[in-house]
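During the no-cost extension, the postdoctoral fellow (Dr. R.K.) reprocessed legacy sequence entries with the updated structure-token encoder. One reprocessed record is reproduced below for audit purposes.
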Amino acid sequence: KMKTFELKGEIRKDFGKKAARSYRSEGLIPCVVYGGHGAENVDFVIKQGDVRNLIYTPEVFLVNLDLGEKKMQAILKEVQFHPVKEQILHIDFLHVFEDKPVVIEIPVRLKGLAAGVKAGGKLSLDLRKLKVKGLAANLPEELVINVEKLVLGKSIQVGDLKFEGLELLNAKNAVVCRVQLTRAARGDAAAAAAATEIEDEESEESESSEE
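Re-encoded structure tokens follow.
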């Protein structure tokens, strides 16, 4: 189950660029939570320091928003940063409803020692996050993929994966992870192939000499 993050904010009273600048000078970030499904959007402000652990992390959270008279669950949609300073200028959230699916990117974690790695290959993760659609209750904190059976030169594509209660939205042929031949493994494979050929030739010669 996805982790939750508690976030307190205040409904915004003043609007416009001047108001936004004034909020930022007080260490507040203007935010909006988009309602979707016919619900209204809500503008609010939060303290800069309160979102550090939500934003500067690869983890994904369901956010419990406490805006005083309004309380709701949301997910992080987009963060706008100042082009020069590290300051966060604005955050968009998306209102999450229990009975309506949401679209969100969830981190991928590879589990197990791939057969191809045992054979000298190198495992690479091409897609660190996958875009999924599902109800909030079905959203995991990470998508675990078992790679034990992945052999040298092979890959796992989005189309090969299934997660209960989730629809994967990335292209079916997008490669999630692969085991590539390293230079050393390539040398070993070539040496092994050459040795096999010599053995075959020798066994053929011994067969023909027996006739």
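The chain is about 20% helix and 40% strand. The chain has a mean pLDDT of 86. The remaining legacy entries will be reprocessed before the final report is submitted.
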